[in-house]
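Forwarding the complex inputs:
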Amino acid sequence: MRVTIRDVARAAGVSVTTVSRALNGAADVGEETRQRVIEVAKQLNYRPSHVARSLVLRKSQNIGLLVSDFRKGGHHFLYDVLVGVHDTLAEYGYDVTLVSTDTARQQLVSYVDFCRARGLDGVIVMGIRLDDPYVEEVVESTLPSVVIDLPLLSRHCGYVMTDNVNGARYAVRHLVSRGCKRIGFVNGAAHAAVSRERLRGFEEAVRQYVGAFDERLVVYGDFTLEGGQRALAELLAKSPDVDGVFFASDLMAIGGIQHCKAMGIRVPDDLAVVGFDDIDLARFVTPALTTVAQPRYEMGCEAAKMLVHMLQKGEMPSGTLLPPQLVVRETA
Amino acid sequence: MRVTIRDVARAAGVSVTTVSRALNGAADVGEETRQRVIEVAKQLNYRPSHVARSLVLRKSQNIGLLVSDFRKGGHHFLYDVLVGVHDTLAEYGYDVTLVSTDTARQQLVSYVDFCRARGLDGVIVMGIRLDDPYVEEVVESTLPSVVIDLPLLSRHCGYVMTDNVNGARYAVRHLVSRGCKRIGFVNGAAHAAVSRERLRGFEEAVRQYVGAFDERLVVYGDFTLEGGQRALAELLAKSPDVDGVFFASDLMAIGGIQHCKAMGIRVPDDLAVVGFDDIDLARFVTPALTTVAQPRYEMGCEAAKMLVHMLQKGEMPSGTLLPPQLVVRETA
DNA sequence: TTGCGCTTCCAAAACGTTTTCGGGTATATT
DNA sequence: AATATACCCGAAAACGTTTTGGAAGCGCAA
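Prediction (whole assembly, four chains):
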């Protein structure tokens, strides 16, 4: 059936030890025998079994991509990060297997056990929320991990996220430069770490660029389209004089714009809008959405790179912030 | 370190054989010892090593998700399918590991070898094109596989795709029912299997519902936004009297609509438009796009199910067509 | 001759499971 | 009393690798 190292050894007239050494570039094997072994291996189309190798080496060159909530929205985000993770992990010679918290939860098993059973060398966590019970596990376990979009740092757990506070600052600064005097903020969900940071950036920027910070100008929209509509309505009811709004997500921003259309408010003339994320939609919606873009693909790459460094060089995990970028279109 | 089956055996005062049997529900182990073993295993938080098990069982309960071109567009499509695959595979107790043709190609290794080296039990292929050299491998290899969106059928290879010809028929029928008399078709790429099928459906439906089929009414737009713009311009140049257009993708349809806006053509009054795919964008664009939706998630599920049936019950692979669905919005 | 250091190779153990085959008891059958 | 029949259980082999601890050969110095 399968051609094993034993077959190669027999065909080359050496021991399995020598075959292993020859193929793995070990020192103590004669040059001519090495060549012969390599030749024979190619001849037989020999592929070492990753499984067997994993068993003896006690590492699988396989890392898990733990996704907390596969189904729910966030398509773009998760996908791009996933691709980034895959690409750079592949570069380093690692495979990636999908793990969803749902299946782990369903089997009533801690996610660490789930990963250990599969011999995963490490795990990249994304889409997890601050109030998820798995968070504790992530930071406490000795399984090397890096979390995306949640600032968790411990002995074996690093994180990478966009620089949300600066992203929010860019948004506000841009609104101000466009002449906005009274700027509102439609935030996402209070429990989300990114929301807190964006709020901080918003507040700092407002203090810096316009002066007083009026906390009645921040409302919450739950990251959804409808939430954006509702939240903007609420904001305008409280403060009819706002002339610019920063939304913590593009989806909410689009909802807000829909609300504006319904109410006869002109964007950006009556109300300037800037979103967050730069989802595909942003360029297609009319008017095209000005937004601050997250480097989704790069986040995946960075997370993968950090994990590999932890694994291979024993580096300590760290927290990395990736710079967002303001994309100016038509709404502000 | 790791708690193995031996530890459990020792703690329970039985042999490893018995532990294995007890935990795997084999028949010949006394009920009391079984309970004792289970108790001890839970006590020690024992998790069988999937790696060791894979080695001896010669199957990994792990299937590969081969993505031909991760980066390029198709975000929504690939992501939804991926989630569907993952969900149902998880249900059946299989893990899924990501495989991109790029990495295989880069290592100058056939994708089958790539999968075999990793001990994958089967593979689900998506995003592959008809002219990809891997196609031959897929149909000829004995590695169980199912392909998405490409009608490849062989002893070990099945496929699942949407019923593109009926999808196209729905589109045409709807345009006709809206009163269109002269209907154009902006197809994708000539080499894509789906394009051929949609063309067939279009032609059949035109013959059935309007009468003569004029092949000058079909142009190609390469599935891109710009391609859609160009193609529609070309179509209108050749036949200014078309009053309805079916686009083989939403992206092209949106491009076409942009072209209409630029030319002062009213949609749907002057020109009715229906797209294909139902990407997220479709509902947000103005006017909202009428389109025929592909059951992306279900395609993933179906593919996974077929593969599992092949693996577990030795079923022969088959070709399944999933019904698309017309989503009527504002453009037609 | 002996001893020593190189180089090149190998036998065997180990990784953590499953499974085959057979051994031992107790109970039922002749 | 002998034998068959269940029923439990265990020793050992197997899966395909890597690695440890020598061993054999050889040249060279003492």
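The radius of gyration of chain A is 26 Å.
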